[in-house]
């Protein structure tokens, strides 16, 4: 199925990695009258795209991407979804423009920090006059707002853990390592690395089961956008699976950065959190005490 109207700014392309976010962005684009082209990343995208104009390309195949975007008259590009691995050097198929930037561009793509790589990818995409836009610009309803989302609100002990984990997540982000941290009883017990949020929560559940963490302490997961991050790519996101894994880890709840984090399937997230007795709230680094008071 395809819609007829493309905007004067050029057709919208959605580069789709793993997870649910690309689907939400595609649905929001259609609801706004767009006719998006889906560029599914090989071995990363796990959705079905038969209802859209779509193609599958390798994660490092910039030549194929450039040709595809030109063929469909794409003027705007959204990067959405997770990417589990970096391309090997043999998988990188550059355009002539990228070749002129070698070795800097290729070296960055293969070994830079996540934020550095994303900024390079944005520059390469925009080099031909296209514009990269954020997922939140296409699906603004996904953005978290300040305050509780559901029926449960954080206690004073929870707020202390939120503040502590937020400080750790902020420092972690400045190092371009990860976006999340967990504090339990005022002690930072886990920092997010390459494994991602769900695996970090699983790690904490294991520590809890092994008796390394007191069963009397709840704790909080905090996810923040990296301070230097280009918000057009890789905004922190939570979904129902985050709630379920936080419950398994014995946490009291989750806090995400308002205006710079995404809540996927908000009604389902709120329902799952309320049923589990977990809080979910938005915090703001620009407000005193992160807006928790």
UniProtKB/TrEMBL annotation:
Residues 147-281 form the LpxI C-terminal domain. This is LpxI family protein. InterPro entries: LpxI, LpxI_C, LpxI_C_sf, LpxI_N. Residues 11-142 form the LpxI N-terminal domain.
